[in-house]
What does this fold into?
Amino acid sequence: MSGDMTIRRLEDMDSAALTYAEIKAIASGNPLVIEKAQVDAELIRLTRLRSAHAEEQYRIRASLRHSREEVQTWTERLANLREDLTLRQDTSGDKFRVELDKQTLDNRGIAGELLLRRAEKIKTRFGEDIRLGRFAGFDLSIRAGFNNTAELILRGKNSYSTRITDTALGTIRSLESVVQGFEERAARLESDIKDSQKRATELEAKVGSPFEKEERYHKLVNRQSEIEEKLDLTKNQAPNQLEAAENTEAIVQVEQPDNTETIKHKPARRMKV
It folds into this structure.
């Protein structure tokens, strides 16, 4: 049910029909027939495990590629974030300033109220991105989202987003927390990069690992061919079937001899009138 073929307990049923040569070999009591059944069963099991190993190798390579891409993407994002840290302006306390529609505001309540009004106007314009001004040294835009929501976007070397809340001051606090959390974002990216690099190193060690029972598998394949050759299972079955048909015809002739007799016609009697 899970798709993992290495933990199955029930063997697959083989629906192959016995050939005439196989039936003949079984009837003869040939020990090679028993060995062939054992070899076939073991080969089925090893083939399943070999296939599972190949699939696991594919998954390992895909995971390795994904980990390497993560390292590259997050490394670039971290470099951009560090650059944004040098551009960030302090807006804490009385240093708060925001440019909206070419006006510079230092009152959080008023600025938040204006943002709420703009959000209400664009909620039905999904996906549209409208530039509002600047905040903390970055371009500030607003974008309509799902379910009549809106979000604020700050753009530097990276882009950072935050949701519009239900209140004016809540919206401003949400916006300020984005720029104040750059150091925390950088620490998370550094941790993620290290984790992905470690995972990539572990996966690299597993790439190309051989199937541990490969030698056993090939020995059984060769032995199977040898047994089939000895049991005459790889040859054309037509001569055997023809022999069976001839034997059957002979038996029928013995059991049913020709009883055909010559019928003599006697002259018909003449009736006296």
